[in-house]
What we know:
This protein is mainly α.
Amino acid sequence: MHAIISITAPFCEIGILCLAGFVLFRQWGYTFAEAAAYAVITMLMALSFIFQTAFIIGFPDLSAKVEVILCLVSVFILVSLRGHLAMGGNILKNFVSAYPRACTALFLCCCCLLIRAILLSPMSSHWDGLDYMLLFEQQGNFFAFPKGDEALFPVNHLVLGHFLLRLNTEFGMGIFGFMAYLSVGFSTYALARRYSWPPTAFTVTMVVMSMPRLVCQAASPGDEIVPAAVSLFCFLCITRSVEQPNIKDMLLLILGILFGISSGITSLVFPVILILLSCVLFIRRHGSYIWWTLLMSNKLASVSVLLPGIIFSQCWLFLFNILYRGAWIGSSADFPPNADGLQGALANFFRYVLESAHFTQPLDLLCQWMMDFRLSGMVQQIYDLFVWPVFGDWGAATPFVINWKHDGTLTWFGPLAFLLILPAVIYTLIRGHRRIKAMTMALMGYFYMVTLITAWTPGNARFFTLFYTCGGFCVAFILPPWRFTKRGRQVIQAGSAVLLFYACVCMNY
């Protein structure tokens, strides 16, 4: 009995914290999808803050006591606001009854992913930070690190591993990837609803949640999908703040941007872009005075996020690295830099666009069986005929080869990402209104920075999880009701469901 309680208690804690956050945000006037997305990300940020603080002061066991208090407060919130929980259940029930087949498919796949997440061992999930987190557990802090002069990398997301490693188990780490996956779905729906009716917004959400690489990451410790989910959460915070300036979204945006600093130096790129994006949109829409007034009129709230902001900024870690490790930042996943400048960036742009044409291995084999040619071979031939003669090896660390294997480290984002999300981002960049155009400009700026900074290698798909996750809601902008019929929605939902089942059942994790 004691063993069963010790195994189930962490997952119950996550459920309690998320439900309490959900009813609290519902009480504050957030929609169902917004409240669910906010609840998940704030839960992850709260746990990370507690764990990092405990390790910094050298008492990791202190985190458990703080969590008990937090859970008791959460239970009190749930009891006090139980009416919002009941209303949320009714909203979910009505939504499922409106889209029974698609919701059933999504529910079954989520159950499969949850089982994988709970049974997952990091030893088999390509978790780069496992060795580091085990060392942190042994030392009891971040600073007695027995690896010579090697600099530490940001630990905002890595430290979440303490949640289960302290129980002397490596299983269940995938729960953080799964929760981030759910947050991506809710955030996508909430953003898509700004530009479409519910049926289209749900279809767009299905498209995003069926991307094979995202499905694969949904059963991982979250080192790739958590930063993507947090970045999409920041997009939602920006949208709500621009629509109606308020202190909650503003402060959560600040914490979300800082929480997005997750691994090596590449993890700093999008937080910097988000800061610039926020300043441009906020000042252009409302001026600078209103934001300063918000901060000054809510001094207690502003001061309360100061310590979490300092922790999430990792400035304490960068200072330690400079003083004792000889470099200001380390990297959890080394990558070769692009040594060919702009020429290499342009070559990589074409490589990544061609690699995005990921029509999956089953369709590739079907084409070979029916028509005696492979789609992957056709994409490779396009590269060999048009890109290689012009650019050669510029920007590449290894020869460029198209590979559509069932491999979680190499797979890309499926045909719908290439046929819908990528064109939608480009279309909104050209034809969108100011706010969505600014967001897609930020995404394209990130795309450019990846092509410029990193040399092409087969595993670089990890850098584009953020791009396709955050760009998914743009599909709603290109599917207005007069152009997107009920039959069209059903076809895309069916295709998404098939892709979702394929990714859940066939992917090699």
